Amino acid sequence: MLDKGSQDENAELVIRFAAGDHAAARALAERLTPIILRQAWRVLGNREEAEDVAQEVMMKLWKQAATWRAGEAKVTTWIYRVTQNLCIDRLRRRRNTTDIDQIAEPEDDGPSVLESITTQERNRALAAEIDRLPDRQREALLLRHFEEFSNPAIAERLDCTVEAVESLLARARRQLAKRLTRNGERFDNV
Amino acid sequence: MSDHMDNELDKRLSEIASDAASATPLPSDVLLQRILSDAADTAVLKQPAESSPTTRRPRWPSLRPIFPVWTSGAFAMMALGLMVGLSLGYGYGDPAMAVQERSTIGDFAYDFDDSFVVLEGPF
User: What is the pLDDT of residues A110-149, one digit of tens each?
Assistant: First the structure.
């Protein structure tokens, strides 16, 4: 799903763009922008900010194109990491610029991005729990269930082994089940 | 974790994923235009650097083919050679020059023994 277009095609388009092919730029923008936007929006929960991140990531790709070496890194993997880093930078900046009056209220009190988009009431608690998972567990879970990535593809994104991904996913699922059961959810009834 | 709980978790996760997919914003035409405009600007910035052989300014020839060391090293070697050459060469000139020099230093004039000058030298 996230790997729209084969990797070779993406790399070839980057190289064509570097050689001055504007059609390749359009093709890349159409392929990659929805992916970046989805990832950034899921982290930031704000459309305008997600769009700014998408523009920034693509700008970095245009600048990088001239020195892009095909076969060294997959375009989508590179895009994923740059997007993630830019989103984290923005989240940090948000925290640093938070008004002193807002510090008294913990950020966790507000609904998370997933929580706010969940339409079914029974899933709200689960969505909130997903956002409370440790970063890598949450990323692995989201890539697996939201982006429908295979475990090797997740391993590549997270720069770890397939076994580590399996472990992250298992721990995330156990954590979710445990917390939900503790909160009074009864899976066998639903 | 039991199989039943596992399946239930899968089911709920896919429901949330489906909600997320339908709520995710799609890139607007304005955003795509901004991105393509950046691409065009980047391409324009790159081109003059790549294709400007006529505007290349003349440069000093490189010393690298002559001295198999880096340029300032070559200058250092030249300077050192000059200093060593000068210090070795100084004083080994024409004996007549030394005689003339010695004779004009003092106020009084007397006959110099040339052989003395040649033997002793100016040192």
Answer: 667 777 777 777 788 888 888 888 989 998 998 998 888 8
Residue pair A58/A37 in contact by the 8 Å Cβ criterion: no
Q: pTM here?
A: 0.63
* CB-CB neighbours of A31 under 10 Å: 18
Q: Which of A29, A66, A119 is nearest residue B32 as measured by Cβ atoms?
A: A29
**For residue A136, what is the enclosing H or E element?**
helix A135-145
CA distance A127 to A57: 27
Rg (CA), chain A: 19
CA–CA min distance B65, chain A (Å): 30
d(C-alpha A7, C-alpha A77), whole Å: 10
Asked if B42 and A127 come within 8 Å (Cβ–Cβ), the reply is: no
* Residue A111 DSSP SS3: coil
Return the DSSP state at A117. H
The neighbour count for residue B45, using CB atoms within 10 Å, is 11
CA atoms within 13 A on the CB side of B100: 5
Listed residue (A62, A70, A60, A52) closest to A25, CA to CA: A62
Nearest to A135 by CA among A70, A85, A82: A85
Can you list the alpha helix ranges (DSSP code H) found in B1-123?
3-23, 29-50, 71-89, 95-105, 114-120
> In this structure, are residues B31 and A55 in contact, taking their beta carbons and an 8 Å threshold?
yes
Nearest to A20 among B14, B19, B43 (CB): B43
CA angle A117-A118-A123, nearest 5°? Answer: 155
CA angle A179, A185, A187 (to 5 degrees): 105
